[in-house]
């Protein structure tokens, strides 16, 4: 008997919301349930519950600094990564990423970006030497072969995030996140799951958004990644 394509696949959900009963909490829960049902091994990094440290500081390096005179975080994190001298919370998250076939980021959009705690996760976890090197980025980033997906909620409606809308095309704010961070590290990026304006939607519409996410996850392993080039985001 052929095993289903998802059996044994590892998924990491990096989740950034303060309230378990929130709409983001529902999206996270339905993803865990659906993926487990498929036989996936699902790990959740619940950043607020973990009280994850978002600040990139010299405390992230446990060994001696390569230049104690003038602190350069990027250089020191790179050296510490090579020597396994990063703090345990960073190493634990890197291990989860390393093992994952798919990383889902679940968060509410803050100022066209991720909440600070999730930005801090990216700053600290996706360091040089682990996620990329120079050379060794974009298509040759160290996380190549892994899939990444942004599942996010917005305050504004879909109309607001259209080309003619007041906020511009939603693809514009995806550029720094999907291209500048995820694709830079080598991830193949799947289309985002955007739940527009759940706060102002009806109960029925919210249920529909959760159901469509669960439905999409049923065939997630068959999806083709997007073309991570500027035309996808900004047109020709």
Short descriptors:
alpha/beta, single chain, Rossmann fold, six-stranded parallel β-sheet, 236 residues
Structure description:
This protein is of the alpha/beta class and 236 residues long. It has eight helices and six strands, in the order E-H-E-H-H-H-E-H-E-H-E-E-H-H. It has helices at residues 23-37, 47-50, 73-82, 88-99, 116-125, 170-183, 203-218, 230-234; strands at residues 10-15, 41-46, 102-108, 147-153, 188-189, 193-195. Residues 9-217 form the Flavodoxin-like fold domain.
Task: Provide a brief overview of the structure.
GO terms for molecular function: dihydronicotinamide riboside quinone reductase activity; metal ion binding; NAD(P)H dehydrogenase (quinone) activity. The chain is α/β, with parallel strands linked by helices.
